[in-house]
Amino acid sequence: MSLDVRTETAVPAQRSRPDARSQRELRRRERRFQHRDKWWGYALIAPAGLGLAVFYLWPVVQTLYYSFTEWGAFGGTTWIGLSNYRTLVGDPEFWHSLGNTGIYTGLVLLGIPLSMALAVLLNLKGLRGTGIYRTLYFLPVVTMPAAVAVVWRWLYNGDAGILNHALSLIGIDGVYWVSDPHTIRFAVAVVGVWMTVGYNMILLLAGLQSIPGDYYEAASLDGAGRVRQFFSITLPLLSPTLFFTTVLSVIQSLQVFDLVYLIIGANTQNALQNPAYSEGQTVVMLFFQKAFFDNQRGYGAAIVCVLFVLIMALTAVQFRLQKRWVHYA
Amino acid sequence: MRETNREGRLWPAHILLSLGAVITVFPLLWEVLTSFKSFSESVQVPPTILPAHWDWSNYSKVFDGIPFAQQFMNTVVMALLRTAAQLLLCSMAAYAFARIRFPGRGAIFLGFLAVLMVPGQLFLLPQYQIMQDLGWLDSMQALVVPGMFSAFGTFLLRQFFMGLPEELEEAARLDGASPFTVFWRIALPLARPGLLALGILTFLWSWNDLMWPLIVNTDPAKMPLSAGLASLQGAHLTEYPVLMAGSLLATLPVIVVFVAMQRQFIQGIAFSGMKG
């Protein structure tokens, strides 16, 4: 069964266009068919719009407000100004969790070259069985993170885990991967990569398939070899998709929660006895703990507000830097 | 001649891809094998590959540890209701954004886009507060209602409607059909691939979602499987064969849906380029 991701579905590949094209686009849009019954417009938007306003848009405002307040024992909030943010700046636990999250994000980004290598291999002309490969690589993406965490905990198990057994066969002494402060971050990041490789691969493959074959033919007529073609055709033309994949990976990794939460065993009675707990804790885990268990909702709100600003800032920086390496055809 | 030559040169690629595939699938395979081992066999050193004796009792122990059947139903109902609601509400709003001109459309659309850009954790505290105020903690409503609305789904379908040919809609309009009739009878059937993509993604995210259920539903009878699995882990920390059986049962429905509809699945992912 062939699973062609059609090229026009590759969103990132077709972003900015030469001016003449976009002019024509604009004129086309002018002509676009529109109803003029405004009441129908309001009526159709109302259900989704009201739901989003009540459950999403207003909560953002409230969370921002909470971050300047302290939660009373019997509900009710007291305005305490920037106090939560001051606490946060001086809270080693916050900085530590931010560092852990940053390391996790960095390590997960290392999976992108891997995804790219797989996508390039799958895109080879005449390769059979691409459908099967794609299915297999994609399985971890659809698997429930709660289940994934349980399975990997078992693989990593210090006493009876298969990983340590495999290492012992080549003469290496295993460690307790998820309760050793030195290994927990890597252990978690490996699972993060495992879960995202197939997903990034699909995006990159869609990008690769949108590169016209003529380019390669012309290049090989000019005597360019495979390696040369990769660096002067594939890489530049794939750079918008690579950029898009990187931006999404960063945004998602900075918010990582369930995977780490369950691999560390934060849901179990003796979670805090795990010596690796503080080396694994991510920002969102800290938020979850403060807001819903320690009843410090104002402080929890401040944590996620800071996280939001960080995500926006990092994304903005990436957009600024894209001029240096992203080529839009 | 050249073709066979090329097929021959592809062997290194096949070797690399197969190696990667084996590494990728191994944890899932190990999960299946462990779920059939007795507890004593599972902790044996050196480990056995195939179970010496295929032990089905771990699967019944899952049902002893958590109200599995109940949680399974909770998950199915939650995922289906969220998906159905999103498909209806998002497509309505998306059509209005794409094809109806009215004052304030741009501003309202910006509001939708703003929701799209905010990380999910910023909604949680007030959402929890709303659930508490409504007395909805430990209920199906808590699992379903906030997940019925989606800025992402609206955006995805709006893009889809904008790409549809407009002649059919124009003709129906000239015949005197109301905007709703045009939307329902003409545009919606044409947008089926977009609806399918959104439906599959929403179903998957709902099925796998963990943090929100952990926050609102602490009663095991009201939990979906993701949260149930987390509590099973809490209770059976060391009984890995039971945990493997539970994980497998919780994942299997989604894997079946994925394998059956993988084409739409993968197209949906590539089209949207987005995940929860």
From TrEMBL, chain A:
Positions of the UniProt region annotated as Disordered: 1-26
Listed transmembrane segments: 39-58, 103-124, 136-156, 186-208, 299-319
Record-annotated ABC transmembrane type-1 domain positions: 97-318
Biased composition (Basic and acidic residues): 16-26
Main location: membrane
Coiled-coil segments on the chain, per record: none
Membrane topology qualifier: Multi-pass membrane protein
InterPro entries documented for this protein: ABC_transporter_permease, MetI-like, MetI-like_sf
SUPFAM superfamilies in UniProt: MalF N-terminal region-like, MetI-like
GO biological process, one term: transmembrane transport
GO CC aspect terms: plasma membrane
Subcellular location per the Swiss-Prot or TrEMBL entry: Cell membrane
Protein family membership: Belongs to the binding-protein-dependent transport system permease family.
Full protein name: Sugar ABC transporter permease
Organism: Streptomyces beijiangensis
Upper classification of the organism: Bacteria, Bacillati, Actinomycetota, Actinomycetes, Kitasatosporales
Automatic annotation (TrEMBL), chain B:
Domain ABC transmembrane type-1: 72-261
One Pfam short name: BPD_transp_1
Xref: CDD domains: TM_PBP2
Record membrane topology: Multi-pass membrane protein
GO cellular component, as recorded: plasma membrane
Keywords on record: Cell membrane, Membrane, Transmembrane, Transmembrane helix, Transport
GO BP term, example: transmembrane transport
Ranges in a coiled coil: none
TM regions (residue ranges): 12-30, 72-95, 107-128, 140-161, 182-207, 240-261
Protein's UniProt keywords contain Transmembrane: yes
Main localization (coarse): membrane
Compartment annotation: Cell membrane
Record-stated family: Belongs to the binding-protein-dependent transport system permease family.
Official protein name in the record: Carbohydrate ABC transporter permease
Organism: Streptomyces beijiangensis
